Amino acid sequence: MARTIALIPAAGMGKRMGAGSNKQYLMLDGMPILARTVRTFEEADCIDAIYLISPEQEIPFCRSDVVERYGFTKVRAIVPGGQERQHSVYNGLRAIEGIEPDDIVLIHDGVRPFVSVQMLEDAAAAARESGASVVAVPVKDTVKVVQEGLVTATPPRETLWLAQTPQGFRYGLIRAAHEQAAAAGFLGTDDASLLEWQGQPVRVVQGDYRNIKITTPEDMILAEAFLKETAK
Ligand SMILES: Nc1ccn([C@@H]2O[C@H](COP(=O)(O)OP(=O)(O)OP(=O)(O)O)[C@@H](O)[C@H]2O)c(=O)n1
Ligand SMILES: C[C@](O)(CO)[C@H](O)COP(=O)(O)O
């Protein structure tokens, strides 16, 4: 049976959060965002090993204040990140030990702490069957394409989905896509887009509107509200 490996990029600088420190370590009800995210992977039976990706200078802190403090036993390594998210993920892909082309890699933002075990299982199963999967939700608003302050298009809403993570892949496929993108200088904002760029199919798996990426200060308010609701 193919193994399922989690790659958790957490090497961003959190510029849009403007917290003055890295957003992945902001506390949500007493626990760092990143630790909340890793906990779900630690608890999921379908996950065999976890690789974290961190800014190089924060690796000791990540080890002491996330991995050791919360006793995460599945974390195999903390890998230094790169300039862009894509570079960080590529570093992670190259660091996984003993991985086979048919093993599954689940790539998940460290700052999406509301991921569920069900989402991990669904994304991994779809990747095993189809090669690549992306967790996503349908958009609720009408989306405008805007150029130089003018609307140039209103794409039909039923075709629009918001991409989340986890995104799941057979290792051989995602490794080759990252290598080809790096050689061609193609930069995508998620991993599925690299396979799309190659013309490969990507299966959509139903996500959850609560699986937010904590990006700007109002996302912290939402995250705290979600936590309060589940504590009731
Ligand atoms: N060079 C980078 C940039 C981003 N990420 C990670 O990718 C995820 C999604 O990125 P985003 O929310 O954009 O985080 P930041 O890059 O930190 O935010 P900003 O763009 O506001 O600086 C985060 O877990 C982030 O840490 C990464 O590992 N390496
Ligand atoms: C991967 C991602 O979270 C999917 O929504 C998103 O594309 C990351 O983008 P960002 O530019 O790093 O915020």
UniProtKB/TrEMBL annotation:
Taxonomy, superkingdom: Bacteria
Record flagged with keyword Transferase: yes
Listed A to Z, the keywords are:
Isoprene biosynthesis, Nucleotidyltransferase, Transferase
Pathway assigned to this chain's UniProt record? Isoprenoid biosynthesis; isopentenyl diphosphate biosynthesis via DXP pathway; isopentenyl diphosphate from 1-deoxy-D-xylulose 5-phosphate: step 2/6
Q: Does the keyword Nucleotide-binding apply?
A: no
Site (Transition state stabilizer): residue numbering on this chain: R16, K23
Q: Name one GO molecular function term.
A: 2-C-methyl-D-erythritol 4-phosphate cytidylyltransferase activity
Could you tell me the EC number(s) of this protein? 2.7.7.60
| Annotated InterPro entries | IspD, IspD/TarI, IspD/TarI_cytidylyltransf_bact, ISPD_synthase_CS, Nucleotide-diphossugar_trans
- Signal peptide start and end residues: none
For the site labelled Positions MEP for the nucleophilic attack, the residues are: R157, K213
Q: Name one Pfam family in it.
A: IspD
Q: Write out the catalysed reaction.
A: 2-C-methyl-D-erythritol 4-phosphate + CTP + H(+) = 4-CDP-2-C-methyl-D-erythritol + diphosphate
- Give the protein family: Belongs to the IspD/TarI cytidylyltransferase family. IspD subfamily.
Task: Explain the purpose of this protein.
Answer: Catalyzes the formation of 4-diphosphocytidyl-2-C-methyl-D-erythritol from CTP and 2-C-methyl-D-erythritol 4-phosphate (MEP).
**Name by which UniProt lists this protein:** 2-C-methyl-D-erythritol 4-phosphate cytidylyltransferase
The source organism is: Geomonas propionica
